[in-house]
Here is the input.
Amino acid sequence: MKKFALVLAASALTAVAAFAEDAAPAAEVVDTDANGTFSLAEVQAVYAAVTEETFKAADTDASGELSAEELKAAVDAGAFAA
Here is the structure.
């Protein structure tokens, strides 16, 4: 039973790591306040040319901050230039 639990735990950790890799848009953008989202200031620390308008366009749920998925989509689409 213990071996099964260890295998299950290892599988779960692998799945979480794989999901984090998929969702991690730009490893260099740091969530400095550790709230799970990225503010305009956090994004501009890496992508200085990002304007408020560009940021708002990337914020598809209009929450005022970018989720990892929103940030990745903007980076992948070339909307945020380094």
About this structure: The radius of gyration is 16 Å. Residues 4-21 have pLDDT under 50 and may be disordered. The helical segments are 2-23, 40-44, 52-58, 68-76.
